[in-house]
Amino acid sequence: MNNPLLVMNQGDASEARVYYCAHFVAESLGFFAREGVNVEFTTAQSGGHTIQGGQVPAVLAGEADLTIGGPMVIMKNHQDNGPALVCFCAAVAGNPWYLAAANPQPAFSIAALRGKKVVDVGNVGTASLCFRWLLEQHHLAEDDITLIAGSGDIQQDFAAVAAGEIDYALHSLHALAPAVASGELALVQSLSPLTGAVPWSAYIARPEVVAAHRPAFQAFTRAIGLALAWLHENSAEKVSALIAPFYPDYPLPALIEAVRGYQQSRIFADSTQISKQDFGHFSDILQQAGWLAQPAPYDALVDSRLTDGRE
Predict the structure, then answer these.
(1) Which residue numbers delimit the SsuA/THI5-like domain (predicted)?
(2) Model's pTM, two decimal places?
(3) Of the four listed, 22, 137, 209, 310, which is most buried by Cβ atoms within 10 Å?
(4) What CA–CA distance (Å, rounded) separates 57 from 45?
(5) Rounded to an integer, what distance in angstroms lies between the CA atom of residue 48 and that of residue 175?
(6) What is the rounded end-to-end Cα distance, in angstroms, of the chain?
(7) Mean pLDDT by 10 residues, the chain (311 residues)
């Protein structure tokens, strides 16, 4: 008997980030097939940080069964009374954004940003909101630092930091790693330990699709669990060699740098379970940052039955 097929939309090219690599690991090592499901990867033509852009419209239109993205999107969607969506499997369990500078700063602290210029290179909603929240937690007001929106040209922004025209770059390690591996920039702070444990990214689907194909979604979730364990158990070099074909234009030294950094910061989820406590913490951050008007309801937005053994 052939395994059931799930179609997963990965979003546009900007969504193919290193911290989303668990499904590539599962595919490469045959975990999907072993657990009894086939997965077809598709892409979107344009990006976006809400349900109107990127990979989510394909799920809502029935063109894809699932996708991967930020739970903040479905939190906001629920608040706005949008179409029902649920997270059902963890992928990224921490803030994958970093601060980088022209030179290493071993004694760096967030307080060191006072009076400095920081370029928010990616201008990505979740990261920008969380960074502003972090500043508030460290008693830094908006006028205590100069926060500059990215120019849209990553290399230009990185060059400005390398030249000392801007003090720090804020971006994901996926984006920063090539500049770090080449020696252009140096990492000074992972934002994951400062933000705390949050379900930054998860696999998302429509609840009626999960219900209709529950065995396939359970198999998918088991395979991702195996992939996450493998990511924690193997070296950055071994992980990078495995996933390199999925990042054909990404230099291998940079890929190793990114994987190693994400392993050290515990960015890859420890399990497929989306913690209610971590979900609540993320909801609190987004509410304090002004993205949400009220707490996001865990039970309405997370289908934990695929990971806790219940049918």
Answers:
(1) 22-235
(2) 0.93
(3) 22
(4) 11
(5) 17
(6) 23
(7) 90 76 97 97 64 72 93 93 96 97 96 96 90 95 93 97 98 96 97 97 97 96 97 98 94 97 96 97 95 95 76 38
